UniProtKB/TrEMBL annotation:
Claim: Coiled coil is one of the keywords in the record: no
Upper lineage: Bacteria, Pseudomonadati, Bacteroidota, Bacteroidia, Bacteroidales
Pfam families to which the protein is assigned, alphabetical: FolB (PF02152)
GO CC term, one of those recorded: cytoplasm
Organism: Paludibacter propionicigenes (strain DSM 17365 / JCM 13257 / WB4)
NCBIfam families found in the cross-reference section: folB (TIGR00525), folB_dom (TIGR00526)
Residues in coiled coil: none
GO molecular function, one term: dihydroneopterin aldolase activity
Function field: Catalyzes the conversion of 7,8-dihydroneopterin to 6-hydroxymethyl-7,8-dihydropterin.
Pathway: Cofactor biosynthesis; tetrahydrofolate biosynthesis; 2-amino-4-hydroxy-6-hydroxymethyl-7,8-dihydropteridine diphosphate from 7,8-dihydroneopterin triphosphate: step 3/4
Name used for this protein in its record: 7,8-dihydroneopterin aldolase
One biological process term in Gene Ontology: folic acid biosynthetic process
Length: 118
C-alpha cells in the first residue's frame, strides 16, 4: 500500500455562516492523503495504471466552488465525491482549513480532519 498526498491546495471560496463570508469569501487550504496500491504503475510507468491526481484536484476544486455554511459540510462533500469517483483509493484523509476565521480575535485557522476507509 502506498500513500499519495496532495498538500496545501489553496482556494478562495465562499463558505461561512456570516453574510460577509458568503459575499467576500475567504482562503481555504485542503490536503488529501490517499492510500492505494501503486505496485503496477511502479512497474509500468503508465498513467493509466495509477490515480490521476489532476482529476482528484479537479474534483476538490469543483466541491470548493459550491458554497456551504460549514466547513464540516464541505469536507464531507469532498470526502464522499473523491472516494466514490476513485475506486482504487482504500483510505482517504482530508484536512480542510479556513484561514483567519472571524472569531473576534486573532486565530490563524480552524481545521477539520476527516477519514474514510473502504
Amino acid at each position: 500500500m502506498s500513500k499519495i498526498t496532495l498538500e496545501n491546495m489553496e482556494f478562495h471560496a465562499f463558505h461561512g455562516c456570516l453574510d460577509f463570508e458568503q459575499r467576500l469569501g475567504n482562503t481555504f487550504i485542503v490536503s488529501l492523503s490517499m492510500e492505494l496500491d501503486t505496485t503496477q504503475p511502479g512497474l509500468t510507468d503508465d498513467l493509466e495504471h495509477t490515480l490521476n491526481y489532476q482529476l482528484v484536484y479537479d474534483e476538490v476544486k469543483a466541491q470548493m466552488e459550491t458554497p456551504s455554511k460549514l466547513i464540516e459540510h464541505v469536507g464531507q462533500r469532498i470526502l464522499d465525491a473523491v472516494f466514490q469517483r476513485f475506486q482504487q483509493i482504500k483510505t482517504l484523509e482530508i484536512k480542510l482549513s479556513k484561514l483567519n476565521p472571524p472569531l473576534g480575535g486573532k486565530v490563524e485557522r480552524v481545521t477539520i480532519e476527516l477519514i474514510k476507509h473502504r
